[in-house]
Specification:
Layout: H1 2-7, H2 12-36, H3 40-110, H4 116-188
């Protein structure tokens, strides 16, 4: 896998980090799957434990939901503000570069009468510098967009994990209630 990633253009260290991360994620997922598999006796013990902790879980869920969503909202607001500031800075910088370049070009045009060939070289250098700066600005903009996309994706991942956790807790609650109901039903029957 490392060799394939290296062939795709990544450095060896980056490829090894990616493979290491994949191994860690796979191991963690397998551990989660094995934790969820239990025998009937373990299941009965787990049902008893769930019953004893049900109230605390409900309280924790309410507290967690309020605090996590509040934190996510505040972080999202901060990120939006930072993004707007970065976009404004980028616009200002690009306008400065454009203004400087236009000024340089106009100055060079005014001196063309004496040294036409030398000024033509300077004009071409200024133009290539402008394009390099523009390319650098575009690269910076792409990196900023990538960072924003990564942060948005991580927020989505956190939201999805919270959703899955909530669904898991709800499912556990439903199964617990069902088990209690079946126990009471069997007891009265």
């Amino acid at each position: 896998m490392v060799l394939e990633l290296e062939k795709s253009g990544l450095e060896k260290r980056q490829a090894e980090l990616i493979v290491s991360a994949l191994v860690t994620l796979t191991t963690a997922n397998m551990d989660i799957v094995y934790k969820d598999m239990v025998t009937k006796s373990h299941q009965e013990i787990a049902v008893q434990q769930i019953m004893s902790h049900l109230d605390s879980i409900r309280k924790d869920m309410v507290i967690l939901e309020k605090s996590e969503f509040a934190n996510l909202r505040s972080e999202n607001t901060k990120m939006k503000r930072e993004l707007e500031q970065l976009q404004n800075r980028l616009k200002e910088e690009s306008e400065k570069v454009r203004a400087e370049t236009k000024l340089d070009i106009n100055l060079e045009r005014s001196r063309i009468s004496d040294m036409f060939t030398d000024q033509e070289k300077k004009l071409m250098e200024a133009t290539s510098e402008f394009y390099h700066k523009k390319a650098d600005l575009e690269n910076d903009n792409m990196e900023i967009n990538k960072k924003i996309d990564l942060q948005v994706a991580s927020l989505k991942t956190v939201l999805e994990s919270l959703k899955l956790e909530t669904i898991r807790y709800l499912a556990a609650t439903v199964f617990s209630c069902l088990a209690i109901f079946l126990g009471v039903y069997r007891f009265w029957r």
